[in-house]
Amino acid sequence: MNSKSLYQEVILDHNKKPRNYGTLDHASHHAVGHNPLCGDHLDIALNLKGEHIDSIAFQGESCAICKASASMMTTVVKGKTRKDAETLIKEFRDMATGTLNLDAEHHLGRLTVFAGVRDLPTRVKCAILPWHTLHAALNSVTTTSTEAEDDPMHAAIGDA
Amino acid sequence: MKIIDSTLKPQFASIFDVEAIRAEFPILKLQVEDKPLVYLDNAASSQMPQPVIDRLVRYQTSQHANINRGVHYLSETATAEYEDSRRKLQRFINAGEDREVIFTSGTTDSINLVMHGYGRKFIGAGDEIILTTLEHHSNIVPWQMLAEEKGAKIKVVPINDAGELLIDEYERLFNERTKFVGVLHVSNALGTINPIKQMIAFAHARGVPVLIDGAQAAPHMHVDVQDLDCDFYAFSGHKMCGPTGIGILYGKAELLERMQPFKGGGDMIMSVTFEKTTYNSIPHKFEAGTPPISAAIGLGAAVDYLSAIGMDAIAAYELELLHYATEQMSHMPGVRIIGTAAMKTAVVSFEVKGVHPHDIGTLLNQEGVAVRTGHHCVQPVMLRLKVPATTRASFAFYNTMAEVDTFIAGIRTVQKFFT
User: Fold this and answer.
1) What are the tens digits of pLDDT across the range A15-65?
2) Topology of the domain comprising B6-32+310-417
3) Which of A141, B214, B256, B364 has minimal CB crowding within 10 Å?
4) What is the pTM of this model?
5) B380 in contact with A, Cβ within 8 Å
6) Domain range for residue A86?
7) What is the ipTM of this complex?
8) A37/B373 touch (CB, cutoff 8 Å), yes or no
9) Spatial contact of A48 and A97, defined as CB atoms under 8 Å apart
10) Residues of chain A in Cβ contact (below 8 Å) with chain B
11) Does residue B377 have an active-site annotation?
């Protein structure tokens, strides 16, 4: 694919003005995600109220694809239940790795702007890292990595 | 490496016919994203010219059999070509004897050979190994493994902000426990050329042997191991127009003979019984099993090719490419070159303000430009210079000034895209 078309307006906008960027006081759940291949890292904190994600924030050092993915993720999962968030995590991962049928029913909505990463294998992990980190936070795992047994390319994440 | 007098440029350019050279590299005709390929990732791996490709085909179609075994025609032919290639490599680095040239699978394998063959035999508890901040992970990790196993210590030579070794500090690290020095000739991430001849002389005055990681030097300058007086010199074939899976370890015969074998198996033995095995003489002691014969012969063809152009001519031309790229980049707002040593090979690591290296790499690819992004297997350098990652353009003698222009224009496009 044309790699420029991945950098759509909405992705560039979220990169420049990331939403929910920062830290949370008294987060109930928290995780740090690493991509050791490029040194990127992402810190995700959230507050669960009952089964709902009441608030969520992220910060870290990453490329535009990763930062925009994290920013859009926080806006989408805020207010959702833990179960719905896990469904999105699975669908996003499947989309990024090219195994999701985008024509069938899914819940990704505007997150489909990231569908193009499936054609850029080296960038798939950039897009997935925030989701992988969110999954770790929801399951009270405090650090995670895109490599080894934690690799989202190899290990199933979410409820699947 | 000599700096070319700029008044000589026109004359030199006519001698160095880069277009004629490019015509011999089939892959350089490739289109990427509908743009002509601009290959600036030569420090990671270089491309292969037709004469080397032809040599591999000729070997595979008319000369292949296992070596050092059969009495038949093909085995004798393959053995002769393999040993002939060893002599080509010997001449290329001016080793005193061909038995001082060992075929390995690459620089990493060469360094591991020295760690196992020399380190495990001669380095013990409390001994110290001197490395530098600039080392590639391949010249750090094997020594850490050894230090852990033996209870030895690693001391590290610091660098300045330009990416140059602090030689005073290097000299201060020596004491009576210092048993080994490992240093790279040229930094893969920054291009710094280290003053290894001076460093080797200092170590030798204290009876300490020195291993040089020459992976980024051998492809770009004339290397003379006898003049350097290094004890070991390691480099890889695929960074110098040769195949992957082949590399060289040069070692002084006297040291190689005292070392223990690294890998056990066929070819490295004189006789085997279940009671005792007698090892073969060097270099065979270190070449267990069937080696990558075709790759070794291909590397011989590659150094023939490089020598025909001339390593001094290659070094001078690449320096012009470096100066041309550096000059333009140093005037670009928001662009910062990482690694500004006085003596450099044609490597430019850089940051673009507000843009992550991965995004730069992906967008430059859109312009057909291939660069490396990330930590370049030198995390200690990145930590020292306080950059998480960089983008690196690394040039070869088949790159052109016009390609430098395409690369620079590509960075401008990236900057525009992110503002």
Assistant:
1) 999 999 999 988 999 999 998 777 788 999 999 999 999 999 999 989 999
2) Aspartate Aminotransferase, domain 1 (3.90.1150)
3) A141
4) 0.90
5) no
6) 3-150
7) 0.81
8) no
9) no
10) 2-4, 6-7, 12, 15-16, 37-40, 61-65, 120, 122-123, 126
11) yes
